[in-house]
Write a structure and sequence with these properties.
about 260 residues, alpha/beta, TIM Barrel
């Protein structure tokens, strides 16, 4: 997957989430319209062990429901509205399943699946996600990421051919993940927080023949700075802005080469 997309890669963070309700089919549709190279989403298990796409451990922020997600069945979650909190234009938007995302987008874009079973790390999320990837033959279309090394290790054992992105917490909490000690965790890419990225970190990661994909890069200045540092990709809530900046950079470089 990592060799099949031109760099730098624009990952639509939870879809085009500045312009549509995050982690919904509408946000993923819009991400492709906005020129994103890939979409990023968050995977969790329902009470009946179905893989759904939602970020928080609870329903309160992004739906009209309330309570812990793993307390509800898929059927119960499908009764909720996941769009109105963002804008009334998205009223009736549903929490999607990972299977629905794969069916709709798997053949059209690349997908970063973050394993977000942080509150339930012993559940079967890695195995369930791996089964869906295999069922839809998307081994060359997906990238797995997580802050949880155990989840990454488990899914890597099942699908070793799928690249792994190691997420690093911001600041001092992510220092070990950004250091040489991350070598014991199988991964092909490091995903640091934007404020922790320096030119020396970029060089260090790339010298190890790994990619560096930075989250969450939303302002014009941040996007431009990451481009100048030479990162391999960014996660952004605003894919159209990122596409505009990267395209303008490419055009400037092309004009410069034409004059030399």
């Amino acid at each position: 997957m990592l060799s099949e997309i031109p760099y730098p890669i624009i990952f639509a963070h939870r879809g085009s989430s500045l312009h549509a309700p995050e982690n919904t089919l509408a946000a993923f549709d819009l991400a492709l319209q906005h020129g994103a190279d890939a979409i990023e989403l968050d995977a969790k298990l329902t009470r009946d062990e179905q893989v759904i796409v939602i970020h928080d451990q609870s329903l309160d922020r992004t739906t009209d429901g309330s309570g812990q997600i793993n307390s509800f069945s898929l059927a119960e979650l499908k009764d909720l509205d996941a769009g109105s909190h963002f804008d009334s234009a998205f009223k009736g938007e549903k929490i999607p399943t990972l299977e629905e995302v794969f069916e709709r987008f798997g053949n059209y874009t690349h997908i970063n699946v973050e394993l977000t079973n942080y509150a339930t790390s012993s559940d079967q999320l890695p195995e369930k996600v791996a089964e869906l990837v295999s069922r839809y033959h998307l081994e060359r279309r997906v990238l797995f990421s997580s802050f949880n090394p155990r989840s990454l290790s488990r899914i890597h054992k099942i699908l070793p051919q799928v690249p792994i992105g190691l997420l690093a917490l911001p600041g001092w909490k992510g220092a070990l993940a950004r250091s040489w000690m991350n070598r014991w965790i199988p991964h092909q890419a490091l995903h640091p927080e934007v404020h922790d990225v320096t030119p020396s970190l970029v060089r260090k990661i790339q010298r190890r023949q790994k990619r560096i994909f930075v989250y969450t890069v939303n302002t014009l200045d941040e996007i431009q700075t990451m481009a100048e540092m030479g990162v391999d990709g960014i996660f952004t809530d605003d894919p159209p802005l990122a596409r505009k900046v990267f395209q303008e950079n490419a055009e400037r470089e092309s004009r410069h080469k034409g004059r030399t």
